[in-house]
Amino acid sequence: xxxxxxxxxxxxxxxxxxxxxxxxxxxxxxxxxxxxxxxxxxxxxxxxxxxxxxxxxxxxxxxxxxxxxxxxxxxxxxxxxxxxxxxxxxxxxxxxxxxxxxxxxxxxxxxxxxxxxxxxxxxxxxxxxxxxxxxxxxxxxxxxxxxxxx
Length: 150
What we know:
Shape: elongated
Number of helices: 6
Largest sheet: 5 strands, antiparallel
Strand order of the largest sheet: 3-7-6-5-4
Distance between the termini: 46 Å
Helix content: 25-40%
Oligomer: single chain
Order of helices and strands: HHHEEEHEHHEEE
């Protein structure tokens, strides 16, 4: 094989086919988490949700003008998610007590009304929203994390 032929072979092998971009984009659906001011106490939480892909908790602050926490279907609409949304207990979310900092931060920021939603975003992917109600601010505030669960 000549040097030119080999060089052409390497050039073709290293060309960007665009396949990696397409597969990266389709890996997970994105949900809305912020459309109003985020409380400072939530920005300072530095904890990771432990799953097959350890992801940091991110702040959540969404306009919500009601006095009760959203039901599952209402929360799905709030975050622009059309798939499965379920409410889970604190015990199911944190069976080992490793997310106490997250739970405390959300309880302090909200009006002590707290819910945990599990959002299915793919076959083995989910997002967990730990949120409380801020009646005075007219919003749902808290933290969310992405998880890979195969």
